[in-house]
Structure formats: C-alpha cells, structure tokens
Amino acid sequence: MVIKMKQIIENLKQQTGVSKDYIYRHFTIDKVELDLIFNEVLTSSDNINDFILTRLTKLKRRALKNLVNTLPDRNILEIKEDEILYYVNNGFLVIITKYQMLAIEERINLDRGVSEVSSEINIKGPKDAFSETFNINLGLIRKRIKSCDLECFDTTIGRKTETRVGILYMRNITDQDLIEKVKLKLSTIDIDGIIDSRGIIALNAKIFSEIVRKLPDNDVVIETESDNQAIITCEKAKFNIAAQSGDDFSYLPAIEREDFITISEFTLKEVVRQTIFSIADNDTNKMMTGELFEIDNDVLRVVSLDGHRISIRKIELKDAYQPRKVIVPGKTLQEISKIIGGEADAEVEISFTKNHIVFEFDRTLVVSRLIEGEYFRIDQMLSSDYETRVHVNKKELLDCIDRATLLIKEGDKKPIIIDIKNESMELKIKSQIGSMDELIFCTKDGKDLMIGFNPKFLIDALRVIEDEEVDLYFMNAKAPCFIKDENQSYIYLILPVNFNAAV
In this structure, what is the dihedral angle of CA atoms 265, 267, 268, 271, given to the nearest 10 degrees? Predict the structure, then answer.
C-alpha cells in the first residue's frame, strides 16, 4: 500500500489548528521521504534529536523501508492514519513514510499533577498552580486533556521580558468572539515589567501620564495601598497620588460591530490634520464639535465646520463599502491623531455600530460614542458658480498672509483685505500696530473684486493643501470663498467679513 503523505499531513494540520506545540518535520534521506509529527510538550525533543534522527540519517534506503527492525531498543508500533493523533497526544513520535506509519514512544515523564498554590491564596479564585516552564505547564494540561480540540494560541508579550503566553480553549466549544477579544487585549500590552504581587487600581489618566512622562529614564515602581493610594517611585522621585478602586473602573463596552472600513494610518492622520481645525471648540452646537465621516462605495468624505468655514476632504478607499454617515467627536480624533504612528504601510480598521465607532491600530483599541443626530446639509451650501476665479502660487499667498498677521494682536479681529484687479492680488491690513500692503501676481478669470477675511481661516486652509498652485472662487464680497481642486478632493469654504471699517 502506498501512503499519500502530503494529504495525511494536511489533514493533521487542520485537526491540530493553531497550536504550535504540534511539531511537523519533513526529511529526505537517501531519496526516501519522511514526515515526523510529535507534540513538543509531551515528547522528549532531546531523545528525538539525539537518538532517533541521528540513527535515521545514517540509514540506507533499504533499511528506511522497514524501520521497525532498525530501532530495536524503542517501543515501536505500526499504526493507522486515524490513530496518529491518539499516539501523538500520548507522547509518541509518529514517523510517516511512503510505505508505513510508526509510533515510537518518547514521552516526557510528567510525574506531578497541578499543585496547590503556595502563595497568593485567594478564596475567589482557583488554587491550582502552574509554576514550571511554559512547555511543562502546557504538558500538564495536555496530559489531562488528550484532545486536538484543545487548541493553544501562544504569543510573546513584553519587548524586554519576551514572556511566552498561551491562550487555551476547546475548539468549536469556546466562543470565537471571546477568543479574539482576549487575543486583542494581549496584543495591546506593550509594557515590560515584573509583577511582584497582583493588584488593581484606577488612576487619573492625565495625571498618571504626566508623571510618567517627566520621570527619569529608568525603572519605575508602582505600588498600591489598601486606602486606594498609589505610590510611584523612580530613582529619587516619589509620588503618592489618590486613586479609585479598580473594581469600580468602567471598562470598554462590548461592541457588536456592524461593518468596517480599512485605511492607512498615514491617511487617517492626514485627513484629521486637514480638517480638524474647523470644528467648533464649544458645545453651543454639538454637531459642530465633531466631524462627519460619510462613506459611499469606495469614497470616504470627511467634513468639519464651525459656522464660519467648512473643510471637506475626499479619500479613495481600496474597497467598496455600504453607505454610512456618522459624526465622530473631534476630541476623539485629536487623541487618535496624537497616538497613531502615521505609517503609510500600517492600517487602521474603523468599525461602526449604531452608537459607537471603534479604531484598531498597532495593538491599540479606541472606542468612542458617536454624536447623535443628523449632520448639516453640506451639499446645499456648496456651489460651482463664480464671478471671479484666481489662480495663484500657494506659498506666496500663504507667506504674505502670515506676514500680515504680525500686525495683529492676539484676540484682535482685524480682517485682511484682498483687492483683485487684472493680473494681481493686493493684500492689505491695518491695525493699531501699523499697516501693510503687498502685491502678488496671479491669473484672474472674471470680475475685479475686493473682499475681506479672517486671516487665520485662510492660513489654516492653505497650510494643509499640498498643491503648489491653488484656485480661489468668488461670487461677490458677501458670498463665501471656495478653495478647491479640479477633482474636488478638497474643498475649503470660508465666509467673508465686513471690512469697511478697516479700509
């Protein structure tokens, strides 16, 4: 009988799943192919390497075709395909060739069971202790549960400690969503340290972060006391700060995600930077404190406004998605912009529910409530009509306006006057400090125009535009100015101000 080795191995790998303690090795010795399968926590790897493999590599083709007679000092059984995992889970090495399947007993002696905890006695929890190495601890569990349905997903946490951590669960029994949540929580751990004794306490995030940020670059010790006090020590610095019981801490809610989009960290960071400046900084109108995320097929449109200006950015997505509109709090986006890496090849998954938005990136999970209500009808405020169109170098215009602001005191609301005639723009400003006027060459299409603006609004918009040349569209001195490109990948609307008193 010829054994289909590849098919058998594929079937075995499907049955053992993600568990990395099942080891598969493939060899070719004297033109004879061999597959070895064993479980590293139940089987002596030293014996396999020192005795079995050493002997196998010295055998010739004829001997390899009849291995039973080549290892007389070993307990060797000829087995069938459906018996392979039974023997692997009982500490046997299984060898598969084209002609036979053999099980060789090489189990590790796990004499002890799971012992009682000798420290940290806790009436709320179990009293079983796993005080050995990862492999031995896993072996103690595998010794009890001899089933491939017991999967072990293992990973490493801690950049310095590189601690091996395993998640054990019964396949097709344990809730898959729960498994993924645990994996996610482990993946977000990015702090190295040694836990001397367990404890839980809730600290003011702002105070805690400021303390840690200003501590010396050395080991930090955090201790908790029974009266909800936390002691933070680093070198000669010592802080004693009030805290709250960790049991009262509000954890992230369980979120049933309805759908999601994926964009790069760079794109998200940029689109926030290019729009966040035009949200309102007060709660007079809740809608204005957030940004509209509007998804339509393969386009994400981000909109912000504060009653004086509107910022719009369009992002092309890699995939098409169902239409959706949500209003994301500006504070959430500002915080994400601070902590996100901004790498072009790193991705952010943005998930939505009825009331929440979830950002997942770089082992970080951010959950935020959405702003409820219907956003402003932006499209009704946009117009393609104009009486005057100006094409100008962006840097020249920006630098000129920036220089003009030198004459404006903080809090002073002096407008900058733009006088458009022929092939030039004259920019003028007058304040208690003094006055300035400067001429910039441009290309004009349409009527002459004199109009005034808050200079800060123009600067904010121009600074986030990447184009060397920009187009400005005007209807009259009382209508808004539009700064936009041909594809309308960006649109900035700025309302004019009354400048009669400043002329």
Answer: 160
109-152 per-position pLDDT tens digit: 765 555 554 444 444 444 445 656 777 788 788 878 878 788 88
CA atoms within 13 A on the CB side of 12: 28
What gap in Å lies between CA 27 and CA 162, rounded to an integer? 31
Together in a domain, 22 and 130: yes
Contact 232, 221 (CB under 8 A): yes
Residue 276 in tokens: 């966040």
* 403 and 487 share one domain: yes
**Of 15-24, 154-163, 371-380, highest mean pLDDT:** 371-380
Give CA separation, 270 vs 70, 265, 275, 291, 351, in Å: 67, 8, 9, 14, 19
Least confident of 22-36, 269-283, 439-453: 22-36
The single residue listed with the structure tokens 């590849």 is 6
Confidence of residue 246 (pLDDT cuts 50, 70, 90): confident
Structural domains counted in the chain: 5
Q: What's the sign of the alpha-carbon dihedral 256, 261, 265, 271?
A: negative
pLDDT of residue 147: 82
Do 78 and 118 fall into the same domain?
A: yes
| Tens digit of each residue's pLDDT (9 = 90 or more) over 72-96 | 667 788 888 889 988 988 888 888 8
Whole domain around residue 466: which residue ranges?
382-502
* Encoded tokens for 489: 């990948």
Q: Which of these, 214, 236, 240, lies nearest to 225 by C-alpha position?
A: 240
In-domain check, residue 196? no
Buried b (16+ CB within 10 A) or exposed e, 334-347: eebbeebeeeeeeb
Residues in contact with 108: Cβ distance below 8 Å, sequence separation at least 6, in sequence order = 41, 42, 43, 44, 91, 139
Question: Do 226 and 267 share a structural domain?
Answer: no
> Under a CB-based contact definition with an 8 Å cutoff, are residues 466 and 443 in contact?
no
d(CA 447, CA 444): 8
User: Helix 455-463 and helix 394-404: axis angle, to 10°?
Assistant: 140
Decide: residue 251, CB within 10 A, 0-12 exposed, 13-18 middle, 19+ buried.
exposed
> Which tokens go with 115?
């012992």
